[in-house]
């Protein structure tokens, strides 16, 4: 055994031999950047290079890197009670307190939380909550889930079937049955001159009517679509969609895995439009990524159905690490930080600054659209601004040019469609300093110019 610390080259060689990455291809990992340290909005690699974390790692490090308070919370809880089952008849204090805290912070109609280990598992659980609810209500055929094109809900099998980015499907089909997609409220790409919010909501209604409302369990939506290109809905969309779901007796699932815990300038994003969901999935920002944790918050009406179930219809859904005490303790401390430092309010103000900076990039011929809400922005690339002809391919080069200049961002992932090209996704930690936000804008401008 080697007693010396491994060099960057040794780690890279071992990585190539032994580690299968998410979205894996050996070409992508041939020269992987190996992160060893993080502080605030910055990451450092094993070879000493430093980068601005322009995507909060994976949209999740809301409070920033290197928060000793979160490490201390984990260590203290681990020393006291590292793990205990939360299965029926057992519980632990951090899980109880965190459930209460999240219910208090989110929508007024919410009642209780079920914990998972991440976003995809949260959405899988939300689908099961929806089907369970309708079976308990005497409507066992209400099983279909409607999602939107460009939506991302995870890539476990059912979540992947709700995710509408074709690159994630190609090698793993067939998809789970009873999932279908409709047009999203994508104003920049909306055909015709109508209100994209109203017409996209009406597309959901048309799908419910075509399928038959007695077959549709739920509609799942990201308040702002993340991996699909940071697509912000027109303000008309969610109020109309809520009315449609109510009219047809369909549950509304808010996928707040990315948008939750301050990212968009509010604790949770549907509040921007005065709308409440029936189920809300969360993950990522709940611990700022320091430990894996997610969950589903259920409304009072869904909770009542669970609470009043006879024993032979109990909610038989479970996971070993649901309500993990250490993860929940870190979640509690992270929420303290977000609250004490006013990070949702900061995300609103600094997000406006970031978006205003990115708006200046419209002068570049390759920039078609700039959009965002809070600390979550997208820049869509085009071949021609007048015709909005999608640019397919340069986004990867822009990401590479940005990396060479010390900035990590992503391009819309999972494969596009013929009507839309590359969109850059930008979502730095909520505490990112103003000067760093200015650098992000400058680097993206330089990277687009260099790549196109």
Query: In the CATH classification, which architecture of the largest domain applies?
Result: 3-Layer(aba) Sandwich
**Number of distinct helices:** 13
Number of domains: 2
Number of strands: 16
Layout of strands and helices, then pairs:
Layout: H1 8-18, E1 35-39, E2 42-45, E3 50-53, H2 56-59, H3 68-80, H4 93-105, E4 110-116, H5 119-136, E5 144-148, H6 157-162, E6 179-182, H7 196-211, E7 216-221, H8 237-247, E8 251-255, E9 279-282, E10 294-299, H9 300-307, H10 325-340, H11 343-359, E11 367-372, E12 377-384, E13 389-390, H12 394-404, E14 407-408, E15 410-411, E16 423-426, H13 434-451
Parallel strand pairs: 3-14, 5-6, 5-7, 7-8, 8-9
Antiparallel strand pairs: 1-2, 2-3, 4-10, 9-10, 11-12, 12-13, 12-16, 15-16
Helix pairs in contact: 3-10, 4-10, 7-8, 11-13, 12-13
If you had to describe this structure to a student in words, what would you say it looks like?
This protein is an alpha/beta fold and 452 residues long. It folds into 2 domains: 8-63 and 342-451, Aspartate Aminotransferase, domain 1 (Alpha-Beta Complex), CATH 3.90.1150.10; 70-340, Aspartate Aminotransferase, domain 2. Helix content is 36%, strand content 16%. The chain contains 13 helices and 16 strands. It has helices at 8-18, 56-59, 68-80, 93-105, 119-136, 157-162, 196-211, 237-247, 300-307, 325-340, 343-359, 394-404, 434-451, and strands spanning 35-39, 42-45, 50-53, 110-116, 144-148, 179-182, 216-221, 251-255, 279-282, 294-299, 367-372, 377-384, 389-390, 407-408, 410-411, 423-426. The protein has a 7-stranded mixed sheet with strand order 4-10-9-8-7-5-6, sandwiched between helices. Strand 7 (216-221), helix 8 (237-247) and strand 8 (251-255) form a beta-alpha-beta unit. It is globular, with a radius of gyration of 22 Å. The mean pLDDT is 95.
């Amino acid at each position: 055994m080697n007693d010396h610390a491994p060099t960057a080259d040794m780690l890279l060689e071992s990585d190539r031999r032994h580690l299968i990455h998410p979205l894996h291809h050996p070409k992508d990992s041939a020269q992987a950047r190996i992160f060893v340290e993080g502080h605030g909005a910055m990451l450092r690699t094993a070879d000493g290079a430093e980068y601005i974390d322009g995507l909060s790692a994976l949209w999740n490090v809301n409070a920033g890197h290197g928060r000793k308070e979160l490490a201390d919370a984990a260590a203290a809880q681990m020393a006291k009670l590292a793990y205990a089952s939360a299965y029926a008849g057992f519980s632990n204090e951090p899980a109880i307190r965190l459930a209460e805290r999240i219910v208090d912070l989110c929508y007024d109609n919410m009642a209780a939380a079920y914990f998972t280990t991440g976003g995809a598992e949260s959405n899988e659980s939300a689908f099961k909550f929806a089907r369970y609810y309708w079976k308990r209500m005497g409507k066992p055929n209400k099983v279909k889930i409607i999602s939107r094109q460009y939506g991302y809900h995870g890539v476990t099998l059912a979540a992947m079937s709700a995710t509408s980015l074709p690159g994630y499907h190609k090698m793993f089909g067939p998809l789970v049955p009873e999932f279908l997609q409709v047009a999203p409220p994508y104003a920049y790409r909306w055909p015709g001159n109508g209100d994209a919010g109203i017409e996209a909501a009406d597309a959901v209604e048309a799908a419910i009517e075509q399928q038959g409302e007695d077959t549709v369990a739920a509609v799942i939506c990201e308040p702002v679509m993340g991996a699909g290109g940071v697509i912000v809905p027109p303000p008309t969309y969610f109020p109309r969609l809520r009315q449609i779901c109510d009219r047809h007796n369909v549950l509304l699932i808010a996928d707040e895995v990315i948008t939750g815990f301050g990212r968009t300038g509010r604790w949770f994003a549907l509040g921007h439009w005065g709308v409440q969901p029936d189920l809300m999935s969360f993950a990522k920002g709940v611990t700022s990524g320091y430990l894996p944790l997610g969950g589903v918050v259920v409304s009072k009406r869904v909770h009542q159905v669970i609470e009043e179930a006879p024993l032979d219809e109990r909610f038989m859904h479970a996971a070993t690490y649901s309500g993990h005490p250490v993860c929940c303790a870190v979640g509690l401390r992270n929420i303290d930080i977000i609250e004490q430092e006013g990070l949702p309010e900061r995300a609103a103000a600094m997000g406006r600054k970031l978006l205003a900076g990115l708006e200046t990039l419209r002068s570049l011929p390759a920039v078609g659209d700039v959009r965002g809400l809070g600390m979550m922005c997208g820049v869509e690339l085009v071949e021609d601004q007048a015709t909005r002809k999608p640019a397919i391919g340069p986004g990867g080069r822009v990401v590479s040019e940005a990396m060479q200049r010390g900035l990590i961002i992503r391009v819309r992932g999972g494969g596009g469609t013929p009507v839309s090209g590359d969109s850059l996704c930008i979502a730095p930690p909520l505490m990112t300093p103003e000067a760093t936000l200015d650098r992000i804008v400058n680097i993206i401008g330089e990277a687009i110019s260099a790549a196109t």
